Amino acid sequence: MRVFDQNSNIFNLLSEAVSEGILVVNKDQIIVATNSRTNEMFGYETDELKGSSLDILLPPSHHEFHKKHVAQYHKNRNKRRMAHGRELFGLRKNKEQFPLEIGLNPFSLYGNSYVMALIIDITDVKEREREIHELNANLEKKIKKRTVELRDTVAELKKEIKLRVSAEKKIKNALQKERELNELKTKFLSLVSHEFKTPLSGIMTSATLVGKYKKEEQQEKRDKHLKTIIGEVKRLNTILTDFLSIERLREGKEVYRFTDFSLSKVINEVVYNSNMLLKIGQRITYPQNIEDVIIRQDEKIVNLVLTNLLHNAIKYSSEDTLIDLKIELGTNQIIFSVIDQGIGIPEKDQRHIFERYFRAENAVLNSGTGIGLHIIKGHLENLNGSISFVSHENKGSTFTVTLPLADANGS
Ligand code: ADP
After folding, report:
1. Integer CA distances (angstroms), 33 to 13, 26, 97, 106, in order
2. 0.85 cut: is pTM over it?
3. How confident is the model at residue 186 (pLDDT cuts 50, 70, 90)?
4. Count of Cβ atoms closer than 10 Å to residue 30 Cβ
5. Which of 389, 406, 276, 273 has its CA nearest to residue 334?
6. Which atom belonging to ligand 1 lies closest to the Cα atom of 340?
7. FRET label pair with 122: which of 138, 249, 276, 284, CA 20 to 30 Å apart?
8. Which residue has the CA at smallest separation from atom 10 of ligand 1?
């Protein structure tokens, strides 16, 4: 210690020139010299620390560790930072602890070993660190919160987009339906005006002529024209019934009545009525071996379906052709086929044939509304049946209808 006292001027001169605290201990850990920065840092007067054990500057919790550290340090003396990676604390005179950083410099003087410690009070640094840490933590919290908010917003936006897409789809569908409806209306009006014109002008002509045949012996002529009028009115009535039936089918209002009825009775009726429309040389063939067959179905619909198919076969075939009605009776179903040798359906029109008001390109010279097939398809579907066709232009068509048969107890 005396060595330092003797050289105190040099020590003071050197140690006061640096900004760090300087503290020198001998090998027994007794403080032999301090500079004023160290005294100030720990709260001691000049020279007050001299002769004290270093423990006075360490918090009690550090004593044990420090002892071990010193023993270790003497085994391997070199210049280094103390307790690198571990937080060090000093103890002020007023018992306040504060963080510090220490660099150790061993040296020998006149045969004695010393360690000079360079001490920096890092209270401010630690405070800054703590503040930064707190700021970071706050920032992280904020980021987390914002991320959650953002995720929620994205989810909401996605939901909104989905809703909008579906609304847009609905609007598009509605628009498309509206457009289709308008097209149908136009088609309907042109069909009605066209289809009504011919019978109405027929009625007009016949009615005018009836008025002209005044003589008693002209009764035959009057009867002929009256028959024409009745026929045309019937035709108008059928067209109107068809239009109304489309509406009923569309609204699902059709009611079906299942009864047991004689198959041959219906076939005879349908063929009888169709025969009246035959062109010259046309003939309808149909099975004769169905006398005793009773089936359970909606008789009116069976009649309607076969009437439509036979009328079409007649209408779209030329004179001297054969129309064949075939029946296949199974246990659970009945299959009707109507085969003609007529104009056929152009391939490009085939996929539209069951659409409302659709008429094939080659059919326009014949009167028609494009309703019949659409209606019977609707009925057949409602009854769990089906309709299909095979057709070749200028060769003929085969329409096939399948209908389920209810069992004896069913309805
Ligand atoms: P319409 O005969 O009153 O026009 P349909 O609904 O009965 O109406 O038939 C739709 C269309 O299908 C017809 O306009 C015609 O182009 C075609 N078609 C139906 N049956 C036949 C057939 N047997 N031969 C050729 N074309 C047919």
Report:
1. 13, 9, 21, 14
2. no
3. confident
4. 14
5. 406
6. 23
7. 138
8. 370
